[in-house]
Amino acid sequence: MAAWADRLRQQGHVRVRQIETHISWLVMAADRVWKVKKPVRLPFVDFSTLALRRHFCEEELRLSRRLAPQIYRRVVPLWRDAHGVPDTHRLARPADEWAVEMLRFADDALLAQQVHAGQLAPTALHALGVQMARFHSATAAQCPDAHYGSADLIASDVRALFAPLCGGPFAERVPIWQEWVAQQVARLTPLWRQRHRQGFVREGHGDLHMGNLVVLDGRIVPFDCIEFDPAKRWIDPVNDIAFLTMDLQAAGHTGLAAQVQDGWLQQGGDFAGLATWRFYEVYRAMVRAMVTGLSPASGSDGTAPGAHYADLLDGWTGRSSRPQLAITCGLSGSGKSTIAAAWLAQGNAVRLRSDVERKRLFGLDALDDSQALGQSIYTEEATTKTFARLAQLAEQALRCGWSVVVDAAFLRQRQRAAFRLLAQRLQLPFTILWCEAPPEVLRQRIAKRRAQSQDPSEATPELVAAQQQWLEPFTDEERPFVQPTSTGA
């Protein structure tokens, strides 16, 4: 491959570079990349024959084109000349090798670099979460092997990490991780089996960390799906997306991880998966701690490679903090969704949006126009069902250890009381986030939101006027829990 790179330079190609990994060679020139699979057979991959290498090139193209069609161009044959140097120039004989031809992008376009440089708005991560939820919903669900994504495989995969971890730099910390994993495996096995029976296992990405995402034209694009081991990509979608939320938190970007999770949950609605989310984050962090911990290099401060993953694991498997429940209260346009989104940045929290869940109850997407579709979703009965659903989801998430903020108007005392009593029953802290803004600001926000058509809310100026009549004052029981927030700027 080095000789091929040299020849490309001699032919006048610019920005020629060669990269070698454990299982591949990459040769780059100008705006193209050729990825050649090494003729290796390892416990986790078999590229030992030309036929297998061609097959896995075709699999890589198929799988990664689902998310990055602009990057993955084609599978190309290679022929070696008399000196053994590969090239794409066709010869009158069968190909000697196969490669995946891809679009080349700048190194600093990788998500890891973009996040580190502070060049990405939180909305971009939220949009990625939405995109991945749509991908998981649309991707193949007919699992080719009943063992893929099974409770037994999940448990064996995580247990297999302990031996190498015990031989690494974090050996003294492993027993605590091991004890936590054992408890969680016992707790989650029935749920894993249930989700497996219900068809949650999908053909996902399999390796969704920051190094496998790139920012192209302002949009985050996942690439490099796992092609060589179907068991690593036929997984529960929570396992897939939790890799990224873990990786962002390990890099110190808890708020961005929350944006990814919020986008994924709002779009897909799989709040039941929250029970497994932290386990999958721990599993992914253990994998990264094991892999990076094997590196001989140390950080600039002398810490062992992978220490940030180990620190994250210590926090997650140590003593857990109590979740809390918060609800918003205020007129449409008063900033409830903004306040609720900011509340997520504390980490370990999820948001429930009445506008989204109301539409979901009626089979509508978050941005669907219910009136245009002839749906009556704002009746008193529909509102009662919506708040009952919000209470059900809130209790479900709280019992799994997640703090919850419920983003709704909560104009009625009885609506607020139901959630205050829920927190009281679960013996958890409760807060009412009271949001208000001047009437002119409310009108401006409503008008802007309706013009953009990018928000689930269907509020109108007329509705805001009616809400002023419907808003019931806080009772003496409620006032100790009220936290005023001004969003009038």
UniProtKB/TrEMBL annotation:
Gene3D superfamilies: 3.90.1200.10, P-loop containing nucleotide triphosphate hydrolases (3.40.50.300). It holds the Pfam family AAA_33. Transmembrane segments: none annotated. It comes from the Bacteria. InterPro entries: Cell-binding_unc_protein (IPR052732), Kinase-like_dom_sf (IPR011009), P-loop_NTPase (IPR027417). PANTHER family: GLUCONOKINASE, SLR0207 PROTEIN. This is Aminoglycoside phosphotransferase domain-containing protein. It comes from Lampropedia cohaerens.
